[in-house]
């Protein structure tokens, strides 16, 4: 990997530009862009830091950067001693991408850019001085130059989004700012990721959105859930992103933040398992029309499971049992048997089930023996089941040569996503992870930082049906990739025809089965189901999660919705979230707030 640093400097400059964006959202101008560096691609190859040199201490730019990928943030006074400047430059050499925000142009900054450019690439974001000092030096040192005329928080927010491809840039200068950058100068860059905008910018009825807050707060007050994250987007533009409540009902508990992490439960099926299978099918390494036995011959050849078509399994009409409580046979007198478990990891106890509780790695065989000893129903009636995903977990390992968590996380890294993945305690501080159930039947402890689902826990936290954790933002990026027909961040991850295949309902006409392949679909006749009544098209798709989650995407309306909560805290028998229709009521508000006749995309993804 070529090591390079991209330096983004934000200068306070007052100048007028001709806004030429599709809805005049911003007035930034892209003046130079060698090798189409902006918008940034291949974020998995970048190690990013931001450096704030501005007298205005706003952290707006930093926050927007964190929506796209992981980055470190530094603050620095450019009037510090030469020694401190040298130390700062030495520390920044560890990063490939540095985003620097400043409202001052002087010799120290110009020299700093020149020094960095000797071995690193530089992007310069100018925000206003009519006469730019050190013009030749800056132009020679920078691969790309982005100019924003106004020093406001919105200007920084939009600059960061242009750099990462959340917003397109199509403007030209209304007035010359240097002898090189004259009136009419301006290049184009495209939109390749989610953007973060004000509702009014895209025609959403902002006066209706307060109802979302009311519904969420009412749910918290009635203890339907301790807290939640809610995100809504239209045509790739996030217009609502808020968090409510706390991690628990304790008055001293941490307030939910947009960066906090939730157990996605069954959303794992579409955000991990289906994601991997679709990618493999796009590469002709997998076919959902094959049988389980085709991919697992030695495992299934002598069983009735070998002839089950994977498409039937993933649409829940293969005749599989709805659920098998594998954990029960691992208990003695209601407690984990230490013939199977250990309080410490060992060469044979490697599957972490909960805090200080490790399961025999070989117990995976016992799980499959239990499944294979369970009869398959011969009819093809719809019956929701997690059991098929135990086989999917094995198939993924067979066709990729890696465990499912590693395969999925490689895709997330390609997308620049750092807040979605398995094994949360290995990735994020416990304070960012919301707890789920106080498990009094199996693990006899509060489940915090470990997967809630018992079966996935027995597998060490990596299941095809559960085990994935995320915040709302990164899950939204995965769902937007599906809406984009498989593209995101400039990469084509999945072929569009494969997306269409998996998100359709292949058996609705023949078997009245609304399900897509892994994806849930709306109820077509009458109310009920995962969506609000008549507010999602038949092309829409998504999934819910037992822990209190829901995500939904509609190709016809362009609406994307994510709701994350830990409604199972402290007791999974709490069904108020469902009984109060909180998730679908919020979906209804979002749908009604989007005026389809006038709202528009900033730039189609």
Description:
This protein folds into two domains: 7-192, Glycoside hydrolase family 3 C-terminal domain (Rossmann fold, 3-Layer(aba) Sandwich); 213-593, Beta-lactamase. The strands form nine sheets. A six-stranded mixed β-sheet has the order 10-12-11-27-26-25, with helices on both faces. Helix 4 (135-141) links the parallel strand 7 (123-126) and strand 8. It contains 19 helices and 27 strands. The protein has 605 residues and is of the alpha+beta class. Helix 1 packs parallel to helix 5 (153-164).
Brief summary of the model shown:
This protein has 605 residues and is of the alpha+beta class.
- CATH class call of the largest domain: Alpha Beta
- The CATH topology label of the largest domain is Beta-lactamase
Sheet/helix structural class: alpha+beta
Q: Count every helix, treating DSSP H or I runs of 4 or more residues as helices.
A: 19
Task: Please give a handful of descriptors for the protein shown.
single chain; 605 residues; alpha+beta; Rossmann fold; Beta-lactamase; 6-stranded mixed β-sheet; 4-stranded parallel β-sheet; 27 strands; 17% strand; disordered C terminus
Secondary structure elements and pairings:
Elements: E1 7-8, E2 17-18, E3 29-33, E4 48-52, H1 60-68, E5 71-75, H2 82-92, E6 97-101, H3 107-117, E7 123-126, H4 135-141, E8 144-147, H5 153-164, E9 172-173, E10 195-196, H6 210-221, E11 227-234, E12 237-245, E13 262-263, H7 268-282, H8 292-295, H9 297-300, H10 310-314, E14 331-332, E15 335-336, E16 341-342, E17 349-354, E18 357-360, H11 363-372, H12 388-400, H13 404-414, E19 420-421, E20 438-439, E21 445-446, H14 454-458, E22 469-470, H15 472-483, E23 487-488, E24 491-492, H16 496-503, H17 508-511, E25 541-545, E26 549-553, E27 559-565, H18 576-579, H19 582-593
Parallel strand pairs: 1-6, 4-5, 4-6, 7-8, 10-12
Antiparallel strand pairs: 2-9, 3-8, 11-12, 11-27, 13-22, 14-15, 16-18, 17-18, 19-22, 20-21, 23-24, 25-26, 26-27
């Amino acid at each position: 990997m070529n090591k390079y640093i991209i330096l983004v400097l934000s200068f306070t400059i007052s100048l007028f530009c001709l806004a030429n964006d599709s809805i005049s959202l911003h007035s930034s101008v892209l003046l130079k862009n060698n090798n189409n560096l902006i918008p940034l691609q291949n974020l998995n190859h970048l190690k990013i830091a931001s450096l704030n040199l501005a007298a205005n201490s706003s952290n707006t730019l930093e926050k927007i950067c964190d929506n796209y990928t992981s980055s470190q943030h530094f603050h620095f006074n450019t009037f510090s001693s030469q020694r401190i400047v040298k130390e700062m430059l030495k520390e920044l050499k560890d990063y490939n991408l540095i985003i620097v925000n400043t409202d001052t142009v002087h010799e120290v900054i110009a020299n700093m850019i020149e020094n960095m450019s000797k071995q690193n690439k530089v992007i310069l974001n100018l925000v206003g001085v009519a006469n730019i000092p050190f013009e030749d030096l800056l132009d020679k040192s920078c691969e790309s130059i982005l100019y924003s005329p106004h020093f406001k928080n919105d200007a920084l927010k939009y600059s960061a989004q242009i750099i990462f491809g959340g917003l397109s840039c199509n403007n030209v200068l209304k007035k010359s700012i240097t002898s090189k950058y004259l009136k009419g100068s301006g290049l184009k860059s495209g939109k390749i990721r989610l953007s973060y905008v004000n509702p009014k910018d895209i025609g959403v009825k902002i006066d209706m959105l307060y109802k979302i807050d009311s519904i969420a707060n009412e749910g918290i007050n009635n203890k339907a859930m301790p807290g939640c994250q809610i995100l809504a987007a239209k045509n790739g533009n996030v217009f609502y992103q808020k968090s409510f409540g706390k991690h628990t009902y304790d008055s001293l508990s941490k307030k939910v933040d947009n960066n906090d992490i939730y157990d996605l439960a069954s959303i794992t099926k579409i955000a991990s398992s289906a994601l991997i299978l679709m990618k493999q099918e796009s590469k002709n390494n997998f076919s959902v029309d094959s049988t389980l036995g085709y991919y697992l011959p030695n495992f299934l050849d002598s069983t009735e499971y070998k002839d089950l078509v994977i498409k039937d399994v993933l649409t829940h009409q293969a005749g599989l049992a709805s659920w098998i409580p594998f954990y029960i046979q691992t208990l003695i007198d209601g407690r984990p048997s230490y013939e199977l478990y250990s309080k410490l990891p060992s060469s044979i106890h490697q599957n972490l089930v909960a805090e200080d509780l490790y399961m025999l790695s070989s117990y995976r065989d016992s799980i499959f023996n239990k499944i294979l000893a369970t009869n398959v129903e011969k009819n093809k009636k719809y019956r929701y089941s997690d059991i098929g995903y135990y086989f999917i977990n094995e198939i993924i390992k067979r066709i990729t040569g890696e465990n499912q968590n590693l395969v999925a996380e490689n895709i997330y890294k390609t997308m620049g996503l750092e807040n979605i993945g398995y094994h949360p305690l290995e990735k994020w501080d416990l304070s960012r992870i919301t707890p789920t159930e106080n498990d009094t039947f199996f693990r006899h402890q509060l489940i915090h930082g470990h997967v809630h689902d018992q079966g996935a826990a027995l597998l060490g936290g990596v299941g095809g049906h559960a085990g994935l954790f995320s915040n709302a933002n990164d899950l939204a990026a995965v769902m937007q990739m599906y809406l984009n027909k498989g593209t995101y961040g400039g990469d084509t991850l999945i072929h569009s025809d494969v997306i269409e295949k998996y998100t359709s309902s292949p058996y609705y006409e023949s078997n009245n089965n609304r399900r897509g392949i892994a994806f849930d679909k709306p109820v077509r006749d009458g109310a009920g189901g995962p969506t609000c009544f008549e507010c999602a098209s038949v092309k829409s798709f998504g999934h819910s999660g037992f822990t209190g989650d829901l995500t939904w995407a509609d190709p016809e309306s362009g609406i994307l919705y994510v709701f994350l909560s830990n409604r199972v805290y402290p007791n999974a028998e709490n069904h108020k979230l469902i009984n109060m229709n909180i998730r679908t009521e919020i979906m209804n508000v979002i749908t009604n707030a989007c005026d389809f006749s006038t709202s528009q995309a900033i730039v189609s993804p």
